[in-house]
């Protein structure tokens, strides 16, 4: 395969299983290159494909360096056991760098997301990925966003070298435990290939810093891992490894793979995990309140925050919006951090909330919040009637 465009088509398609949404939350590489002829600093968005943490829609050139792989991950179209493997090809580091710059200067993309299959020795492929990043930073003077995947089995020196050129690095955890990973891969070792490298990455991050931090990805479905198992692992990733984000990818069977006949995971299950993750990461809810019971999944018919509120209704709700603490307000469905702070700020100024319209103007989603609040002592919705209307009466305690 000689055509660069053909390589882009194949290797771009092969990279679609890596999740990188909101991964471009940085302004330039370590704030270098403001002026001085650098590319990639504070330029307008081009074609948009993913969302940054601040809500901007940005575009990334998301691609594999090669789709040749000696690993046997049962969910992957590039696995050695997949009977429907796509045509094998690879970029040279220079081809990759020049193709990206061509896309960038045409305003197709704003940053790079680079991963790769592993052809035997991970060090060889990592060396090529590092060289591609070096060419971009040093030869092409690109100062924009680069997200690089650390490959399982990489050396510590390669992790350090990769991080020197990247804004973000990541390594896919794939499964919450060794036993669950064994259901998805016949070649990856959970401790040495994954956890050891995550510890190295954390050390690199602590010493040198990464503008956009570190992330990982967990496959949802395809094995026996429950949402309880996944969220337990998520909590560990945030507390022990200081990860910026954990991403969740709903399993979908690949034709010709060993898991071809396994049912796909519902996309709604993936969505519920993101909602629970948000409560843990941004709202700082206690994990004992967010995690479902052991060996179970989050319910699909109700979001985690509303589920928690209904379980706590007798003890915590309804809350008086003119008196409730910031923490109590954050536990109300339909009230987020911004609207909760607005309510507290008004209270400090001596302004009381008198009607529903005032809360709505502050950003409160009233159709979700009503049964859990009181306004000047008055309640405007009964929980049982509200739950019946929203078809979630089974969750009323």
Can you describe this structure?
With about 400 residues, the chain is an alpha/beta fold. It folds into 2 domains: about 5-290, Aldolase class I (TIM Barrel), CATH 3.20.20.70; about 305-395, no CATH class. About 40% of the residues lie in helices and about 10% in strands. It is built from 16 helices and 10 strands. A 6-stranded parallel beta sheet has the order 3-4-5-6-7-8. Strand 1 (about 50) and strand 2 (about 55-60) form a beta hairpin. Helix 3 packs parallel to helix 4 and helix 7 (about 225-240) runs parallel beside helix 8. The chain is globular and about 70 Å long.
How large, in whole angstroms, is the Cα Rg? 24 Å
Order of helices and strands: HEEEHEHEHEHHEHEHHHHEHHHHEH
CATH class category name of the largest domain? Alpha Beta
Query: Helix/strand-derived class?
Result: alpha/beta
According to CATH, the homologous superfamily of the largest domain is: Aldolase class I
Q: How many β-strands, per DSSP? A: 10
CATH architecture of the largest domain: Alpha-Beta Barrel
Tell me briefly what this model is:
The chain is α/β, with parallel strands linked by helices and 397 residues long. It has 16 helices and ten strands.
